[in-house]
Protein backbone atom coordinates (compact mmCIF):
# COMPACT_ATOMS: atom_id res chain seq x y z
CA UNK A 1 0.00 0.00 0.00
CA UNK A 2 1.25 3.49 -0.80
CA UNK A 3 2.63 5.55 2.04
CA UNK A 4 0.79 8.54 0.67
CA UNK A 5 -2.15 8.83 -1.69
CA UNK A 6 -3.25 12.22 -2.95
CA UNK A 7 -6.68 12.69 -4.47
CA UNK A 8 -7.72 15.81 -6.35
CA UNK A 9 -11.41 16.60 -6.09
CA UNK A 10 -13.77 19.33 -7.11
CA UNK A 11 -16.00 21.89 -5.56
CA UNK A 12 -17.83 20.31 -5.54
CA UNK A 13 -43.05 16.36 -25.38
CA UNK A 14 -41.86 18.48 -28.20
CA UNK A 15 -43.94 19.47 -31.18
CA UNK A 16 -41.93 18.43 -34.21
CA UNK A 17 -42.09 20.33 -37.46
CA UNK A 18 -40.08 18.91 -40.31
CA UNK A 19 -39.33 21.69 -42.80
CA UNK A 20 -38.48 21.34 -46.46
CA UNK A 21 -34.79 21.31 -47.34
CA UNK A 22 -34.56 23.05 -50.69
CA UNK A 23 -33.05 26.25 -52.08
CA UNK A 24 -34.86 28.32 -49.44
CA UNK A 25 -33.21 26.42 -46.60
CA UNK A 26 -30.82 29.18 -45.51
CA UNK A 27 -33.48 31.89 -45.48
CA UNK A 28 -35.81 29.65 -43.49
CA UNK A 29 -33.01 28.95 -41.04
CA UNK A 30 -32.34 32.66 -40.62
CA UNK A 31 -36.02 33.37 -39.94
CA UNK A 32 -36.26 30.51 -37.48
CA UNK A 33 -33.11 31.54 -35.63
CA UNK A 34 -34.34 35.14 -35.41
CA UNK A 35 -37.69 33.98 -34.06
CA UNK A 36 -35.94 31.64 -31.66
CA UNK A 37 -33.75 34.50 -30.39
CA UNK A 38 -36.83 36.62 -29.72
CA UNK A 39 -38.35 33.70 -27.80
CA UNK A 40 -35.16 33.14 -25.79
CA UNK A 41 -34.97 36.83 -24.95
CA UNK A 42 -38.60 37.03 -23.87
CA UNK A 43 -38.88 33.74 -21.99
CA UNK A 44 -37.73 33.78 -18.35
CA UNK A 45 -34.87 31.39 -17.68
CA UNK A 46 -35.93 28.52 -15.45
CA UNK A 47 -33.35 27.02 -13.07
CA UNK A 48 -31.59 23.89 -14.30
CA UNK A 49 -30.62 21.06 -11.96
CA UNK A 50 -29.26 18.38 -14.27
CA UNK A 51 -27.21 15.23 -14.26
CA UNK A 52 -26.02 12.54 -16.62
CA UNK A 53 -27.12 8.91 -16.22
CA UNK A 54 -24.12 6.69 -16.97
CA UNK A 55 -25.70 3.65 -18.61
CA UNK A 56 -22.67 1.41 -18.01
CA UNK A 57 -23.30 1.57 -14.25
CA UNK A 58 -26.94 0.48 -14.60
CA UNK A 59 -26.32 -2.97 -13.09
CA UNK A 60 -25.20 -1.35 -9.84
CA UNK A 61 -27.14 1.90 -10.06
CA UNK A 62 -30.42 1.41 -11.89
CA UNK A 63 -33.06 3.91 -12.96
CA UNK A 64 -35.00 2.99 -9.81
CA UNK A 65 -32.08 4.29 -7.72
CA UNK A 66 -32.17 7.80 -9.22
CA UNK A 67 -33.41 10.57 -6.92
CA UNK A 68 -35.60 11.98 -9.68
CA UNK A 69 -37.10 14.68 -7.45
CA UNK A 70 -33.69 16.36 -7.25
CA UNK A 71 -33.48 17.17 -10.95
CA UNK A 72 -35.19 19.11 -13.70
CA UNK A 73 -33.30 17.23 -16.44
CA UNK A 74 -31.48 13.92 -16.70
CA UNK A 75 -29.41 13.16 -19.79
CA UNK A 76 -28.74 9.59 -20.92
CA UNK A 77 -25.10 8.89 -21.71
CA UNK A 78 -24.32 8.25 -24.53
CA UNK A 79 -25.31 8.15 -28.18
CA UNK A 80 -22.02 7.62 -30.03
CA UNK A 81 -21.28 9.06 -33.47
CA UNK A 82 -20.52 6.53 -36.20
CA UNK A 83 -19.14 6.63 -39.77
CA UNK A 84 -22.76 6.34 -40.92
CA UNK A 85 -24.28 9.82 -40.53
CA UNK A 86 -27.75 8.29 -40.50
CA UNK A 87 -27.02 6.25 -37.38
CA UNK A 88 -25.80 6.83 -33.82
CA UNK A 89 -24.92 3.97 -31.52
CA UNK A 90 -26.88 4.20 -28.25
CA UNK A 91 -24.99 2.60 -25.39
CA UNK A 92 -26.85 -0.12 -23.48
CA UNK A 93 -30.03 0.12 -25.59
CA UNK A 94 -32.01 -2.11 -23.23
CA UNK A 95 -31.47 0.40 -20.43
CA UNK A 96 -32.35 3.28 -22.74
CA UNK A 97 -35.74 1.71 -23.50
CA UNK A 98 -36.89 2.41 -19.95
CA UNK A 99 -35.03 5.68 -19.42
CA UNK A 100 -37.44 8.11 -21.09
CA UNK A 101 -40.62 6.61 -19.64
CA UNK A 102 -39.10 6.52 -16.15
CA UNK A 103 -37.99 10.15 -16.39
CA UNK A 104 -41.40 11.27 -17.65
CA UNK A 105 -43.17 9.28 -14.94
CA UNK A 106 -41.20 11.39 -12.48
CA UNK A 107 -41.93 14.68 -14.30
CA UNK A 108 -38.31 15.08 -15.33
CA UNK A 109 -37.12 16.19 -18.76
CA UNK A 110 -35.38 13.35 -20.60
CA UNK A 111 -32.53 14.13 -22.99
CA UNK A 112 -29.71 12.13 -24.51
CA UNK A 113 -26.07 13.14 -24.70
CA UNK A 114 -24.47 12.68 -28.12
CA UNK A 115 -20.73 12.10 -28.21
CA UNK A 116 -18.67 12.02 -25.05
CA UNK A 117 -14.95 11.36 -24.77
CA UNK A 118 -15.12 8.07 -26.70
CA UNK A 119 -18.10 8.89 -28.92
CA UNK A 120 -17.05 12.10 -30.70
CA UNK A 121 -14.86 10.51 -33.37
CA UNK A 122 -17.15 11.27 -36.32
CA UNK A 123 -18.72 14.58 -35.29
CA UNK A 124 -16.50 16.59 -37.61
CA UNK A 125 -17.33 14.58 -40.72
CA UNK A 126 -21.04 14.57 -39.82
CA UNK A 127 -21.19 18.38 -40.07
CA UNK A 128 -18.46 18.97 -42.65
CA UNK A 129 -20.70 19.61 -45.68
CA UNK A 130 -24.19 20.95 -46.27
CA UNK A 131 -25.32 17.52 -47.44
CA UNK A 132 -23.91 15.82 -44.35
CA UNK A 133 -25.41 18.41 -42.03
CA UNK A 134 -28.87 17.92 -43.49
CA UNK A 135 -28.60 14.15 -43.12
CA UNK A 136 -27.30 14.47 -39.55
CA UNK A 137 -30.19 16.80 -38.71
CA UNK A 138 -32.60 14.10 -39.89
CA UNK A 139 -30.77 11.58 -37.71
CA UNK A 140 -31.12 13.83 -34.67
CA UNK A 141 -34.79 14.54 -35.32
CA UNK A 142 -35.49 10.83 -35.64
CA UNK A 143 -33.51 10.13 -32.47
CA UNK A 144 -35.64 12.59 -30.54
CA UNK A 145 -39.04 11.79 -32.03
CA UNK A 146 -38.68 7.99 -32.16
CA UNK A 147 -37.76 7.88 -28.48
CA UNK A 148 -40.06 10.67 -27.24
CA UNK A 149 -37.13 12.64 -25.86
CA UNK A 150 -37.51 16.22 -24.67
CA UNK A 151 -34.17 17.37 -25.97
CA UNK A 152 -30.67 16.67 -27.22
CA UNK A 153 -27.39 17.44 -25.49
CA UNK A 154 -24.24 17.67 -27.62
CA UNK A 155 -21.03 16.55 -25.96
CA UNK A 156 -18.54 17.00 -28.80
CA UNK A 157 -15.07 16.62 -27.29
CA UNK A 158 -13.93 18.79 -29.03
CA UNK A 159 -14.64 20.86 -32.15
CA UNK A 160 -11.35 21.61 -33.90
CA UNK A 161 -9.35 19.08 -31.87
CA UNK A 162 -8.45 15.39 -32.00
CA UNK A 163 -10.00 14.77 -28.58
CA UNK A 164 -9.27 11.22 -27.51
CA UNK A 165 -6.66 11.13 -30.26
CA UNK A 166 -8.34 9.76 -33.36
CA UNK A 167 -11.28 12.13 -33.86
CA UNK A 168 -11.83 13.47 -37.33
CA UNK A 169 -11.33 17.21 -37.05
CA UNK A 170 -11.09 20.35 -39.13
CA UNK A 171 -10.27 24.04 -38.58
CA UNK A 172 -13.85 24.68 -39.72
CA UNK A 173 -15.46 22.48 -37.06
CA UNK A 174 -16.89 25.31 -34.97
CA UNK A 175 -18.34 27.14 -37.97
CA UNK A 176 -19.81 23.91 -39.33
CA UNK A 177 -21.19 22.99 -35.92
CA UNK A 178 -23.07 26.29 -35.80
CA UNK A 179 -24.53 25.76 -39.29
CA UNK A 180 -25.68 22.29 -38.27
CA UNK A 181 -27.26 23.58 -35.06
CA UNK A 182 -29.08 26.37 -36.89
CA UNK A 183 -30.56 23.81 -39.27
CA UNK A 184 -31.44 21.53 -36.37
CA UNK A 185 -33.11 24.37 -34.46
CA UNK A 186 -35.30 25.02 -37.49
CA UNK A 187 -36.35 21.37 -37.47
CA UNK A 188 -36.85 21.28 -33.68
CA UNK A 189 -38.09 24.73 -32.64
CA UNK A 190 -39.48 23.55 -29.30
CA UNK A 191 -36.96 20.92 -28.22
CA UNK A 192 -34.34 21.63 -25.58
CA UNK A 193 -30.91 21.82 -27.19
CA UNK A 194 -27.86 22.05 -24.97
CA UNK A 195 -24.15 21.30 -25.05
CA UNK A 196 -21.50 20.09 -22.64
CA UNK A 197 -18.52 22.31 -23.34
CA UNK A 198 -14.91 22.86 -22.47
CA UNK A 199 -13.95 25.58 -19.99
CA UNK A 200 -12.91 27.62 -23.02
CA UNK A 201 -15.14 28.73 -25.91
CA UNK A 202 -15.19 26.55 -29.02
CA UNK A 203 -11.91 26.47 -30.95
CA UNK A 204 -11.77 28.87 -33.89
CA UNK A 205 -10.24 28.25 -37.31
CA UNK A 206 -6.86 29.54 -36.12
CA UNK A 207 -6.71 27.04 -33.27
CA UNK A 208 -7.44 29.48 -30.44
CA UNK A 209 -10.65 29.87 -28.39
CA UNK A 210 -13.34 31.75 -30.32
CA UNK A 211 -13.77 35.40 -29.38
CA UNK A 212 -17.42 35.52 -30.47
CA UNK A 213 -19.80 32.63 -29.78
CA UNK A 214 -22.93 34.76 -29.44
CA UNK A 215 -24.67 33.03 -32.37
CA UNK A 216 -24.64 29.76 -30.43
CA UNK A 217 -26.94 31.36 -27.85
CA UNK A 218 -29.66 31.47 -30.51
CA UNK A 219 -29.64 27.70 -30.95
CA UNK A 220 -28.76 26.42 -27.47
CA UNK A 221 -31.11 26.73 -24.53
CA UNK A 222 -28.01 26.52 -22.37
CA UNK A 223 -24.50 25.12 -22.21
CA UNK A 224 -23.03 23.02 -19.41
CA UNK A 225 -19.40 23.94 -18.78
CA UNK A 226 -17.44 20.80 -17.90
CA UNK A 227 -15.35 22.23 -15.09
CA UNK A 228 -13.61 18.96 -14.29
CA UNK A 229 -10.55 16.99 -15.37
CA UNK A 230 -8.67 20.28 -15.17
CA UNK A 231 -5.85 18.37 -13.47
CA UNK A 232 -5.28 14.63 -13.54
CA UNK A 233 -2.69 11.86 -13.97
CA UNK A 234 -1.75 13.39 -17.33
CA UNK A 235 -0.65 16.68 -15.69
CA UNK A 236 2.89 17.64 -14.71
CA UNK A 237 1.92 17.97 -11.05
CA UNK A 238 -1.02 17.18 -8.83
CA UNK A 239 -3.83 19.71 -8.81
CA UNK A 240 -7.56 20.12 -8.22
CA UNK A 241 -9.83 18.14 -10.51
CA UNK A 242 -12.49 20.87 -10.59
CA UNK A 243 -11.17 24.15 -9.14
CA UNK A 244 -13.68 26.85 -8.37
CA UNK A 245 -11.28 29.77 -8.74
CA UNK A 246 -7.68 29.74 -9.95
CA UNK A 247 -6.90 33.41 -9.34
CA UNK A 248 -5.09 32.41 -6.15
CA UNK A 249 -2.63 30.18 -8.00
CA UNK A 250 0.95 31.18 -7.24
CA UNK A 251 2.22 31.11 -10.82
CA UNK A 252 0.93 31.06 -14.38
CA UNK A 253 1.53 27.34 -14.87
CA UNK A 254 -1.08 26.65 -12.18
CA UNK A 255 -3.72 28.84 -13.81
CA UNK A 256 -5.06 26.25 -16.22
CA UNK A 257 -8.76 26.93 -15.65
CA UNK A 258 -11.56 27.00 -13.11
CA UNK A 259 -15.29 27.58 -12.80
CA UNK A 260 -14.83 31.33 -12.39
CA UNK A 261 -12.40 31.76 -15.29
CA UNK A 262 -14.56 29.52 -17.52
CA UNK A 263 -17.69 31.61 -16.98
CA UNK A 264 -15.68 34.76 -17.59
CA UNK A 265 -14.22 33.33 -20.81
CA UNK A 266 -17.60 32.31 -22.24
CA UNK A 267 -19.38 35.53 -21.30
CA UNK A 268 -16.50 37.63 -22.65
CA UNK A 269 -16.95 35.76 -25.95
CA UNK A 270 -20.59 36.83 -26.04
CA UNK A 271 -22.44 33.87 -24.55
CA UNK A 272 -25.13 35.07 -22.10
CA UNK A 273 -24.42 34.22 -18.47
CA UNK A 274 -28.04 33.22 -17.87
CA UNK A 275 -27.64 30.44 -20.44
CA UNK A 276 -24.64 28.91 -18.65
CA UNK A 277 -24.93 25.95 -16.28
CA UNK A 278 -21.91 24.90 -14.24
CA UNK A 279 -20.83 21.28 -14.60
CA UNK A 280 -19.66 19.85 -11.27
CA UNK A 281 -17.57 16.73 -10.73
CA UNK A 282 -18.83 13.88 -8.60
CA UNK A 283 -15.36 12.32 -8.44
CA UNK A 284 -11.64 13.00 -8.04
CA UNK A 285 -8.34 11.67 -9.39
CA UNK A 286 -5.75 9.66 -7.47
CA UNK A 287 -1.99 10.30 -7.53
CA UNK A 288 0.97 8.42 -6.10
CA UNK A 289 2.82 10.98 -3.97
CA UNK A 290 5.53 10.58 -1.33
CA UNK A 291 4.88 12.06 2.12
CA UNK A 292 7.76 14.49 1.64
CA UNK A 293 6.16 15.91 -1.51
CA UNK A 294 2.57 15.79 -0.29
CA UNK A 295 3.07 17.97 2.78
CA UNK A 296 4.88 21.20 3.55
CA UNK A 297 5.04 21.79 7.33
CA UNK A 298 1.91 19.63 7.72
CA UNK A 299 0.08 21.72 5.11
CA UNK A 300 -1.05 19.94 1.98
CA UNK A 301 0.86 20.88 -1.15
CA UNK A 302 -1.74 21.18 -3.92
CA UNK A 303 0.83 21.15 -6.74
CA UNK A 304 3.33 18.41 -5.92
CA UNK A 305 5.29 16.03 -8.10
CA UNK A 306 4.00 12.48 -8.30
CA UNK A 307 4.89 9.08 -9.69
CA UNK A 308 3.70 9.32 -13.30
CA UNK A 309 4.57 5.68 -13.97
CA UNK A 310 1.92 4.41 -11.58
CA UNK A 311 -1.69 5.53 -11.08
CA UNK A 312 -3.17 4.08 -7.89
CA UNK A 313 -6.50 2.28 -8.45
CA UNK A 314 -9.63 4.17 -7.48
CA UNK A 315 -12.93 2.92 -6.09
CA UNK A 316 -15.17 0.11 -7.30
CA UNK A 317 -16.30 2.20 -10.28
CA UNK A 318 -12.78 3.00 -11.43
CA UNK A 319 -11.86 2.10 -14.99
CA UNK A 320 -10.37 -1.38 -15.13
CA UNK A 321 -8.13 -1.46 -18.24
CA UNK A 322 -8.11 -5.22 -18.77
CA UNK A 323 -8.77 -6.70 -22.19
CA UNK A 324 -9.81 -10.22 -23.23
CA UNK A 325 -7.90 -13.04 -21.55
CA UNK A 326 -6.05 -10.59 -19.33
CA UNK A 327 -4.52 -8.57 -22.16
CA UNK A 328 -3.98 -4.83 -21.98
CA UNK A 329 -7.23 -3.02 -22.78
CA UNK A 330 -7.27 -0.71 -25.79
CA UNK A 331 -9.29 2.47 -26.16
CA UNK A 332 -11.44 3.27 -29.21
CA UNK A 333 -8.34 4.56 -31.00
CA UNK A 334 -6.51 1.27 -30.45
CA UNK A 335 -4.10 2.68 -27.87
CA UNK A 336 -3.31 0.99 -24.52
CA UNK A 337 -5.71 2.18 -21.86
CA UNK A 338 -4.20 3.33 -18.57
CA UNK A 339 -5.64 2.91 -15.09
CA UNK A 340 -8.22 5.62 -14.43
CA UNK A 341 -7.53 6.22 -10.75
CA UNK A 342 -10.93 7.84 -10.23
CA UNK A 343 -12.65 8.16 -6.86
CA UNK A 344 -16.36 8.91 -6.60
CA UNK A 345 -17.42 10.66 -3.41
CA UNK A 346 -19.17 7.56 -2.07
CA UNK A 347 -15.93 5.68 -2.68
CA UNK A 348 -14.01 8.21 -0.62
CA UNK A 349 -16.42 7.61 2.26
CA UNK A 350 -16.33 3.83 1.99
CA UNK A 351 -12.54 3.87 1.94
CA UNK A 352 -12.21 6.20 4.91
CA UNK A 353 -11.03 9.40 3.22
CA UNK A 354 -14.20 11.36 3.98
CA UNK A 355 -16.74 11.25 6.79
CA UNK A 356 -20.46 10.89 6.09
CA UNK A 357 -20.90 14.68 6.34
CA UNK A 358 -18.27 15.30 3.66
CA UNK A 359 -15.44 16.41 5.95
CA UNK A 360 -12.05 14.74 5.94
CA UNK A 361 -11.51 11.83 8.28
CA UNK A 362 -8.67 13.46 10.22
CA UNK A 363 -8.80 10.74 12.87
CA UNK A 364 -7.31 8.37 10.30
CA UNK A 365 -4.40 10.70 9.53
CA UNK A 366 -6.10 12.50 6.65
CA UNK A 367 -5.20 16.09 5.81
CA UNK A 368 -7.12 18.19 3.35
CA UNK A 369 -7.16 21.60 1.68
CA UNK A 370 -10.00 23.80 0.45
CA UNK A 371 -9.93 26.29 -2.39
CA UNK A 372 -9.24 29.08 0.08
CA UNK A 373 -9.61 31.94 -2.37
CA UNK A 374 -13.07 30.77 -3.45
CA UNK A 375 -14.85 33.05 -0.99
CA UNK A 376 -12.62 36.11 -1.10
CA UNK A 377 -14.87 37.89 -3.57
CA UNK A 378 -18.08 39.37 -2.17
CA UNK A 379 -20.05 38.10 -5.15
CA UNK A 380 -18.87 35.38 -7.45
CA UNK A 381 -19.19 35.70 -11.26
CA UNK A 382 -21.04 32.38 -11.01
CA UNK A 383 -23.96 34.32 -9.53
CA UNK A 384 -24.81 35.65 -13.00
CA UNK A 385 -25.20 32.17 -14.46
CA UNK A 386 -28.26 29.95 -14.58
CA UNK A 387 -27.53 29.42 -10.84
CA UNK A 388 -27.89 25.71 -11.14
CA UNK A 389 -25.51 22.80 -11.55
CA UNK A 390 -24.99 19.68 -13.65
CA UNK A 391 -23.36 16.73 -11.91
CA UNK A 392 -21.10 14.26 -13.72
CA UNK A 393 -21.71 11.42 -13.24
CA UNK A 394 -24.93 10.62 -11.41
CA UNK A 395 -23.73 8.80 -8.31
CA UNK A 396 -25.17 6.59 -5.61
CA UNK A 397 -27.41 8.82 -3.43
CA UNK A 398 -27.48 6.40 -0.53
CA UNK A 399 -23.69 6.62 -0.35
CA UNK A 400 -23.11 10.34 -0.94
CA UNK A 401 -22.81 12.67 2.06
CA UNK A 402 -25.26 15.59 2.18
CA UNK A 403 -22.58 18.21 1.47
CA UNK A 404 -21.51 16.58 -1.76
CA UNK A 405 -24.74 14.91 -2.87
CA UNK A 406 -25.91 16.29 -6.19
CA UNK A 407 -29.11 17.58 -4.61
CA UNK A 408 -27.19 20.12 -2.53
CA UNK A 409 -25.17 21.72 -5.29
CA UNK A 410 -27.80 24.04 -6.81
CA UNK A 411 -28.88 25.54 -3.50
CA UNK A 412 -25.31 25.99 -2.35
CA UNK A 413 -24.79 28.19 -5.39
CA UNK A 414 -28.05 30.00 -4.62
CA UNK A 415 -27.03 30.75 -1.05
CA UNK A 416 -23.58 31.95 -2.14
CA UNK A 417 -25.26 34.36 -4.53
CA UNK A 418 -27.77 35.69 -2.01
CA UNK A 419 -30.77 33.96 -3.53
CA UNK A 420 -33.45 32.44 -1.32
CA UNK A 421 -33.26 28.70 -0.89
CA UNK A 422 -36.06 26.89 -2.64
CA UNK A 423 -36.81 23.28 -1.77
CA UNK A 424 -33.61 21.92 -0.28
CA UNK A 425 -31.73 22.70 2.90
CA UNK A 426 -27.97 22.95 2.51
CA UNK A 427 -24.95 24.66 3.93
CA UNK A 428 -24.21 28.22 2.87
CA UNK A 429 -20.78 27.44 1.49
CA UNK A 430 -19.97 27.02 -2.16
CA UNK A 431 -16.90 25.01 -1.10
CA UNK A 432 -18.68 21.67 -1.34
CA UNK A 433 -15.77 19.32 -0.63
CA UNK A 434 -12.01 19.52 -0.17
CA UNK A 435 -9.93 20.14 -3.27
CA UNK A 436 -7.31 17.68 -2.06
CA UNK A 437 -7.10 15.00 0.60
CA UNK A 438 -4.03 13.02 1.55
CA UNK A 439 -3.31 10.05 3.75
CA UNK A 440 -0.10 10.52 5.73
From TrEMBL:
Organism of origin: Thanatephorus cucumeris (strain AG1-IA)
Region span, Disordered: 393-420
Any Gene Ontology biological process: carbohydrate metabolic process
Domain GH18: 47-440
Compositionally biased residues, Polar residues: 403-415
Entry keywords, A to Z: Signal
Record's protein name: Endochitinase
Highest taxon above the source species: Eukaryota
Gene Ontology annotations for the cellular component aspect, listed alphabetically: extracellular region
InterPro entries per the UniProt record, alphabetical: Chitinase_II/V-like_cat, GH, Glyco_hydro18_cat, Glycosyl_Hydrlase_18
Stretch forming the signal peptide: 1-17
Family annotation (Pfam families): Glyco_hydro_18
Example GO molecular function: chitin binding
